[in-house]
Amino acid sequence: MRKLLFSVIGIMVIHSCQEQPVVASDELSRKENFSMNSLDKVVPTDPKAMEYLNAWPEFRALESEIERVYQSENKEDLILVVEELVLKQTALEASVYPEPFDIPQIRSRQRVFKTYLLKVRAALDDRAEVLTPAKEMIAAYNAMRKQFNVVVNNTLDTNLILDD
Questions:
Q1: What is the pTM of this model?
Q2: CA geometry: angle at 107 spanning 103 and 109, to 5°?
Q3: pLDDT in tens, 87-112
């Protein structure tokens, strides 16, 4: 019985001492360098909406930071861009909205964008996979831009509906 026990322990020791496969440095560098070009492109805005958005400096600042997301080549760049995005989004939230965009539909989409922006920041802090939350953040930003288009192209007069 004792010989069997020593034999089993010996086999386990020999089996556990085998060399583990070495992770190639190419795989590590591939994980460090990633491309944000796989994200959806930013939705264009109607010229009517652009008139209002160009007069809104906080939104223009946010828009320029969004463009920098696509230029990020590694996680360190993306961390800096996301921190700036958080600051710009906070400034946008506190700013005075242009008259047609001071409505709950725009503000709610901005909150959704903020949620996904913070999700990207959390993924970066946790060193987790960041591409999926970044795609969600861009989708939320595009939804906000689409809502700008809907608002300026809306020809329905709400006063006619409310005056019964």
A1: 0.76
A2: 120
A3: 999 999 999 999 999 999 999 999 99
